[in-house]
Amino acid sequence: MTYDLYIGDRTFSSWSLRGWLMFEKFGLTHRVHLTGLYSGRLAEDLAPLAPARLVPVMRTPDGIVVGDTMAMAETLAERHPEAGLWPEVPEARALARWIAAEMHAGFGALRGDCPMQLFGRYEGFEPSADVKADLARIETLWTLALERHGGDWLFGAYSLADVFYAPVAARIAGYGLPVGSVAQEYVARALSDPAFRRWRAMGLTVSYAPEPYRLDLPRGDWPGPAPIPARAVETGPSENDACPYSGKPVTDFMEMQGRVFGFCNPFCRDKTVQDPGAWPKFMAILR
């Protein structure tokens, strides 16, 4: 049972991040299709998926097309009750749905003033009063969930509530937004999550000129975990003969810690260069 998932540019498409995490975090088999969100091809790419006009969109293994992340979430939860997308306890599940729906429908100031970008953290960004009000509400919801039901995540185990708030955590990080210690700790966990790191690493393989949403502010390093330094190199030989992801013969190479590793295409190499420690299949051959 393989789903098809249609997404936009990973560095900027917060809704696509939500859609991808629904599959990645709960072990649901899927194929990813990139659409031309910033190239003008979006309508053409989504034409076979009518009435879809935005990303993400999914097609189920039996051919049903579902758009909008809330509809996707509920459809996947219905189809895969064993996967634990929502909390099991009814009280926790109700609150998780509530706060996810509030995120899905609200926080317009935060969305409008702070579009998601995963390149680095803006320095000197001054949030408006409306953005601060959104942040205060988000802190109230996170604190309530964590105090009543939480652990590392909002409801103990990772759930769809954490999926919906992952782009919020990215916005807080990317704009250096002022939040209290509970929220800062939650943001740090979200940024350290290996799935989030893999999404960001894949996004960083693409460069933009001009960059969408770029502010005229200095931008420092991304506040998530610092990756292991690595770089692309032109030639091997590599320690491995097969790509750690596809098993195909290697054609593209990366140097890390004085060692050379091979991959089957530039994308496999470049996503690994961006954050080697986020990729378990690569780390297995490193050891």
The number of distinct helices, counting runs of at least 4 residues, comes to 11
The biggest beta sheet is recorded as: 4 strands, mixed
The overall average pLDDT, rounded, is 97
Trace the largest sheet across and list its strands. 2-1-3-4
What are the low-pLDDT stretches, counting only 5+ consecutive residues below 50? none
Proportion of beta-strand residues: 5-15%
What's the CATH architecture of the largest domain? Up-down Bundle
Domain count: the total is: 3
CATH class wording of the largest domain: Mainly Alpha
Number of E-type strands: 9
Find the structural class using helix and strand composition: alpha+beta
Between the first and last Cα atoms, what is the distance in angstroms? 32 Å
Task: Specify the helix fraction band.
Answer: 40-55%
Gyration radius, rounded: 19 Å
Q: How would you explain this protein's 3D organization?
A:
It is built from 11 helices and 9 strands. With 287 residues, the chain is of the alpha+beta class. The chain folds into 3 domains: 3-83, Glutaredoxin; 90-199, Glutathione S-transferase Yfyf (Class Pi), Chain A, domain 2; 227-286. The strands form 3 sheets. A 4-stranded mixed β-sheet has the order 2-1-3-4, with helices on one face. Helix 4 runs antiparallel to helix 6 and helix 9 crosses helix 10 (266-274). It starts with a strand and ends with a helix.
